[in-house]
Amino acid sequence: METFAPPSHSHVMGTLFLNAWIALLEKQGIYDNLKDLRRESQKLIEERNDVRIRVIVAEQQQMKRLERVQGWFSRVQDVLYEVDRLTLESNREDVKLCLGGLCTKSCKSNYKFGRKVFRTLREVQSLSLEGDFKEVAQPAPVNPVDERPLPTSVVGLQSTFERVWSCVMEDTIGIVGLYGMGGVGKTTLLTQINNKFLVSPNHFDFVIWAVVSKDLQLEKIQESIAKKIGLFNESWSSKNVQEKAQEIFKILSNKKFMLLLDDIWEPVDLAQVGLPIPSPRSTSSKVVFTSRDFEVCGQMETHRSFKVECLAYEDACELFEEKVGREILDSHPDIPELAEIVAKDCGGLPLALIAVGRAMASK
């Protein structure tokens, strides 16, 4: 019967020595890779910061970052998180030298950890090569004007609109004021001007709409402008009025714009907003605003002002009948005469005619 002799003492010591030597080599390889990983990840951080600066500059010029650049930023963030995690793990006790193969669990742990370090190092190096972008952004397709809602039919403003539109298109006119009592149709007229740019050839890069109202806040006007010209982002709210004005001026000083300000109750300092102020000698950009007060037009130094009048009697009757509806008007022989009396009592004020007409239609 064949027998097996137990391993000699020298054989056991040789095996332990060999295992220890292999463990030392593995350990040294992990340390080397960790050192390389830290160095390469720092280079990747620097490269990411450089690309980020290029993107910020491009976006300030109304360009849109490329999707592949955004995807790269996301992957860089993920891999840097993994680098931090591996760095913490490398300091734990389970990543230690295994002697003689006796610490089997630790050896396996070291091996797995070493593989993760190696893979992450390769990913960091790959992302670093990938981040060499020739272009980080492209011109964003910007619609110069946003269509605003209008009533299905506008009564009695056509002649005023034509006069204002002709004035706005004059080369020597930069600031135009529209004034009149509340409810007379100033906002409707301004909306018609806004929407006209959708179908009329013009040279404006931006047509900007902003509501001012009685509580004047320059930052609200700045926000409307920033959203239109591509400046509005996460950091916008952290800037003060002066900083926002500088950003706006930097963009609009090289652009041709039409700013439509609705419902001004007091003078708006256009320079504080950040606008290059149109003058008779420089009217490539223009400002049109509405106000209830003619004095505001003078204080805004308008080049032309237009009073928006109440509707003439015929137009008032037409608007009122439109809101009441033909069915109601024909339901009783006395109603048409009553409608004319009510229309006259409204004094040609469109807002009153619309409100009373709709109320009458619902009876």
From TrEMBL:
<dbReference type="Pfam" id="PF00931">
    <property type="entry name" value="NB-ARC"/>
</dbReference>
<keyword id="KW-0175">Coiled coil</keyword>
<dbReference type="GO" id="GO:0006952">
    <property type="term" value="P:defense response"/>
</dbReference>
<keyword id="KW-0067">ATP-binding</keyword>
<dbReference type="GO" id="GO:0043531">
    <property type="term" value="F:ADP binding"/>
</dbReference>
<dbReference type="GO" id="GO:0005524">
    <property type="term" value="F:ATP binding"/>
</dbReference>
<dbReference type="InterPro" id="IPR027417">
    <property type="entry name" value="P-loop_NTPase"/>
</dbReference>
<feature type="coiled-coil region">
    <location>
        <begin position="27"/>
        <end position="54"/>
    </location>
</feature>
<keyword id="KW-0611">Plant defense</keyword>
<feature type="domain" description="NB-ARC">
    <location>
        <begin position="159"/>
        <end position="327"/>
    </location>
</feature>
<dbReference type="InterPro" id="IPR002182">
    <property type="entry name" value="NB-ARC"/>
</dbReference>
<dbReference type="InterPro" id="IPR050905">
    <property type="entry name" value="Plant_NBS-LRR"/>
</dbReference>
<dbReference type="InterPro" id="IPR042197">
    <property type="entry name" value="Apaf_helical"/>
</dbReference>
<protein>
    <recommendedName>
        <fullName>NB-ARC domain-containing protein</fullName>
    </recommendedName>
</protein>
<keyword id="KW-0547">Nucleotide-binding</keyword>
